[in-house]
Amino acid sequence: DSIRLSALIFKAEVEWMKGDRNAYFTTVLSCQPFLNRVSNEAVQLEIYKHLGNYHLLTKEPETADFYIKRMLKAAKSLNSKQDITRAHLLLSQNFAMSNLKDSSLLHIDIAIQNARRTSNKALLAECFHQQATTYKMFGQLELGVAKDILALQIATEIRNYRLISIFSNEIGKAQFSIQNLQEAEYYFKQALENAYKVDDERYRGTALVELATIYFSKKNYADAVHNCQKAISIFEDLNNQEGLGNAYNTLGIIYREQ
């Protein structure tokens, strides 16, 4: 049982990184029956984490809350500051989904406090990124960008190229939303370059689609189409339906305009 469960948890992590939601959902639900058969609290914590995330993604806030609080309880029992941090980040997402801004930001503050007590700077950067996401979700774009820039500075300092790619992409999207195309292009190119460094196909595809929107805005239709086609090929290999949808949608807009 323990070997099979470890394999399932690892498989879920890989599918989550790739953005293959359908496979991730199936794997996470396969882990659920093990909760009654496993006594190891650290392993239970991992299952609670993924089940909480699953119910967040399927927009079931009450069930998500149940599993994330179980995760938090296990993290406190194990005195794992990193897992306490991650649990508060998930609770923050759940409150944001329910349109409860103050509660969402409160849990991010608690997450930041706990992340500072660890040596995990990547985790601290993720906290500031989630704070940025929450501010932007509630219409505070400038404050959101400032927090993402802080997250990017930390990721750059520790040379975490995957996080540099993610945060650069988000800053680029914010710049694009206010028609600051030059800054947006700079950040999207930075996102693409860093995704290449760690061979992260998911975020390479994401950056290619975002750059396509820049080329489209400049009426450089050939490069815009080329980028979308490359992204579609990547997302098809990853079975990333969300990425595929965005790429096809962008490509359709370009074709209609030409």
Topology:
Layout: H1 2-18, H2 21-31, H3 41-57, H4 61-77, H5 81-97, H6 101-116, H7 121-137, H8 141-157, H9 161-177, H10 181-197, H11 201-217, H12 221-238, H13 241-257
Helix pairs in contact: 1-2, 2-3, 3-4, 3-5, 4-5, 5-6, 5-7, 6-7, 7-8, 8-9, 9-10, 9-11, 10-11, 11-12, 11-13, 12-13
Question: What does it look like?
Answer:
- The protein has 258 residues and is mainly alpha-helical.
- It has helices spanning 2-18, 21-31, 41-57, 61-77, 81-97, 101-116, 121-137, 141-157, 161-177, 181-197, 201-217, 221-238, 241-257.
- The longest helix has 18 residues, at 221-238.
- The model has no long low-confidence stretch (mean pLDDT 95).
Describe the structure concisely.
The chain has helices at 2-18, 21-31, 41-57, 61-77, 81-97, 101-116, 121-137, 141-157, 161-177, 181-197, 201-217, 221-238, 241-257. It is an all-alpha fold and 258 residues long.
What is the terminal-to-terminal distance? 57 Å
Indicate the percent of residues in helices. Answer: over 70%
Q: What is the helix tally?
A: 13
Name the overall outline.
globular
Q: Approximately what portion of the residues adopt beta-strand conformation?
A: under 5%
Please, what is the oligomeric state? single chain
Give the H and E element order: HHHHHHHHHHHHH
Structural class, from helix and strand content? mainly alpha
Rg (C-alpha, Å): 19 Å
Average pLDDT reading:
95
Name the poorly predicted regions: none
How many strand segments?
0
Largest sheet: none
